[in-house]
């Protein structure tokens, strides 16, 4: 697949079927939200794209189809953003999410006007930590036994990136704003 086919653009309501497919693609998507039907996918996208929502959702697009999402949920009072992402199963493991997350983190700090980004990932999800570090996030701590998953208490590693932190080296994805 040529690289030009990959880009970032704003999430749209028309992405709902691709969002539904992504949630069905891997059981680990269940923790990203309650999307099991077309109607729930439509409501999920509607919440994110609503003009008064605090979310800044960017679709990762390949060959005109959504394959992933990077979103910054903005806390305007503190100029902070909660940073989160997911990739449909078939598109994982190619470094595309690392590039997408690094691109959106730069945008959020340089253009969206935020001072701090933060995220957390379960310690049994190391791929998410790889993506975060490649996007310039620094590990700040561990929330011990934060979640109860299938009867097991799991730690969550927390990460932050400040506007003043060093920029990571990465291969950015184009951001299409039309
Ligand atoms: C987390 C997620 C977005 C990563 O997507 P991805 O497409 O695999 O990401 P990338 O390919 O850009 O990078 C992942 C890196 O982690 C590495 N990785 C994967 N599993 C790993 C493991 N068990 N241990 C260490 N590294 C691992 C990969 O090898 C890859 O590094 P590489 O490019 O050097 O090979 C994807 O797995 C996902 O959507 N998971 C479900 C939702 C989720 O957990 N979101 C994050 C919530 S905090």
Automatic annotation (TrEMBL):
Residues 6-165 form the N-acetyltransferase domain. InterPro entries: Acyl_CoA_acyltransferase, GNAT_dom, Ribosomal_N-acetyltransferase. SUPFAM superfamilies: Acyl-CoA N-acyltransferases (Nat). Keywords: Transferase. The keyword Transferase applies. It is an enzyme of class 2 (transferase). Its EC number is 2.-.-.-. Transmembrane segments: none annotated. One of its GO terms (molecular function) is transferase activity. CDD domains: NAT_SF (cd04301). This is GNAT family protein. The lineage of its organism: Bacteria, Bacillati, Actinomycetota, Actinomycetes, Micrococcales.
